[in-house]
Amino acid sequence: MNTELFIAKKLFFDKTNKNFLSYKIIRIALFGIALGLAVMLVSVSVVTGFKREIREKVIGFGSHIQIINYDSNNSYETQSISKNQSFLPLIEQIDGIVRIEAFATKPGMIKNEEYIQGIVFKGVDQNYDWDFFSKNLVEGRLPLINDSARVNEIIISQQVAKLLKIKLNDSAVIYFLNETESLPRILQLKVCGIYRTSLDELDNIFIMGDIKYIQRLNNWEDNEISGFEISISDFSKIDELEKQVKAQIISYRKNNEPTLQTINIVRQYTQIFDWLSVIDMNVWVILILLSLVAGFNMISGLLVIILERSSMIGILKALGSQNMSIRKIFLYQSGFIIIRGMLWGNIFAVTVMLLQKYFHIVKLDSATYYINAVPINFSVLHFLLINVASMLITMLMLVIPSYLVSKITPEKSIRFD
Which residues contact 383 (CB under 8 A, 6 or more apart)? Predict the structure, then answer.
């Protein structure tokens, strides 16, 4: 039988504890633990949700990894490569690669009587996965691209539509310039859909349509494209998978073909991902500060409990109990308090997150934060890690204060009582 645990349970569940001064202090400590843990859980959930939302929006415009001509220099005015590459079947077999799609881009301008807006026309073929734009479509429908005739349809962002006063089913006049030509080429395309992702930096420039128009504008053959977009299943493995893709490209390069390069979405939009990485530091500061606050709350509570139970400590020592054994009693009791506080903290955090996730109570300015409401990301792993780490840190902080037990002597404590 664990005597220390038995005594700790008796002390913790004793109804006469309300008569002690430590009862109110313990309640404050319990509230501090619950609130601190809830704030930590909500903070991590919000930050990971925010990063996931922004990351998915950026990836929606450019996928995870791109294979392009080395001479393109990361420009939207790209040099062509062949759509028929011998390494594609081998890349598709790499574990973690989900999809490979052909694309082409060309910068241009949309103009009306009052405004001129620079855009990038991104062309895709009939195999393109429209899931991202389907989720963010606010009006109309997606272009019905096929593998035969050119489809005279595009989707544009809501911001561009408002700026240029373009409505659904209107014709947008787009101007393109080629280096070897003095006069611009003009396309008049029907707006079949309007999307909004709230990521204004990309919404303001991208329009989506048939890749065959870009091939015609650049005088390309049917098998010429700007490059390939590769989607992966796990974002954390993007660097590793890019290395494997690059190895296949190098292995199958022929002397008469253009040199290809790979670029991942993190390098392509460095400023956005650098900004997201800064948020991680803020979360770590919050977690550390709240853990310390919860620990010091429990230290004060433990000290008061020990002082109020000094007579009991004296009696236990008189009966032959060792300091370590008595310290375990108070550490067990502190553990019960921490667990109760963490239980209430988890309940409160889950309630707040569910309300925000389904009712969007806290709104955001999409022009500043790129999203309309505070995002929530539920992760069982994050919950477990934060709970376990909070418990361990708080208990470790209580080890040193528990040494106060060794300073209490039986003759003084019993005489004092």
Answer: 41, 346
**Is it the case that residue 19 has pLDDT exceeding 70?**
no
Q: Tokens 């294979």, residue?
A: 67
The string of pLDDT tens digits covering residues 276-314 is: 888 888 888 888 888 888 888 888 888 878 877 788 888
DSSP string for 340-399: HHHHHHHHHHHHHHHHHHHH--SB--HHHHSSSB------HHHHHHHHHHHHHHHHHHHH
Joined tokens for residue 113: 């009587």
Tokens of 188: 């008049």
Phi, psi of 145 (to 5 degrees): -75, 135
Yes or no: say if 225 and 80 are a contact pair by the CB < 8 Å rule.
Answer: yes
Q: Which residues are CB-neighbours of 371 under 8 A, at least 6 positions away? A: 50, 53, 54, 198, 364
Sign of CA dihedral 125, 128, 131, 132: negative
Which carries the bigger pLDDT value, residue 313 or residue 214?
214
Report yes or no: 125 and 102 within 8 Å, Cβ to Cβ.
yes
155, with CB counted inside 10 A (0-12, 13-18, 19+), is: buried
Which residue's structure tokens are 């974002």?
235
The span from the CA of 299 to the CA of 297, in Å, is 5
In the three-class reduction of DSSP (H, G, I as helix; E, B as strand; rest coil), residue 187 is classed as: strand
User: How far is 301 from 356, CA to CA, in rounded Å?
Assistant: 34
- What single DSSP character describes residue 213? H
Check if the beta carbon of residue 138 is closer than 8 Å to that of residue 85: no
Count other Cβ atoms within 10 Å, centred on residue 405. Answer: 24
DSSP 233: S
Q: Annotate 165-178 with b (16+ C-beta within 10 A) or e (fewer).
A: ebeeeeebebebee
pLDDT over 90 at 316, yes or no: no
Q: 116-125, 268-277, 325-334 — which one is most confidently predicted on average?
A: 116-125
The SS3 of residue 86 is coil
> Quick one: which H or E segment has residue 194?
strand 185-195
Distance in Å from the first CA to the final CA of the chain = 30
